[in-house]
Amino acid sequence: MDAIPVPLTTQEPTVSASAQPQEGLAHPDRAGRHLHGLAAPPATHDHAHGIDSLVTEVLEILLEHHHLGVPVSAAAITSRLPVDVALVDAAITRLLEEGTAQLVGDVSQERLALSADGVPVATTAVRRHRLTERLLSDVIGLEWWKVHHEAERWQGIVSGDVEEKLIELLGDPGTCPHGNPIPGSDNAPEHADAVLLADAPVGPVEVLRITETLEGDDEALQLLQNCGFMPGKHAEIQRNERGWVQVAGAHHDAALPPHVAAHTYVAPR
Question: Domain spanning 119-170 has what CATH number?
Fold first, then answer.
């Protein structure tokens, strides 16, 4: 059998668990500055729309780290979003200026965290985004790999009344179509045996979750959909060779590259 090709990849930086949020440390003098030292781009319509669509994605990451109790660096957020760095930076700056996020730690090791007022804002935004993804996938029938970007276009449209109707219509789903938990759902799954595909042993598995990092990667999602390696599907890991994972999906076999294996969770079965 031919060896799986191995491209060069960039590892996502890790966030130190020792950097804990410091209560009351707001750093108002730093809230408005450009985090990466770049000149602020002109405020065009396309630029503003790009920032709007990124705000929820940044909130997803901040909410995840809030639940972990660990703040996150701006660089780590940027590394998880495969878009223009300046747009991510502008989305972060907006959240800081609005008071939804705050800088914690000293200047040399500052991190981002949700503010007290920002936690319910992030929870609501993430819940509505993931419910919208469910609507697009389960009711409208939009292709799985398209629902994330389409749901971004609905940002700000879903009201509280519509949110309640979506929960009723969809049966209070526990996850979005990518397997990420919907905040506030009574049906959120618990997978104590979840493991990254990159670390999973050879054998049969159930696909559990695709992280937010991959949700914006259309090429990766199409690869997963085409071979049938999607949340809720049964599959098999055939071998792992230098980061590339050969799988037998629900539809056909495929070689999944390292960056996909590093952001896909499975459970042995």
Answer: 1.10.60.10
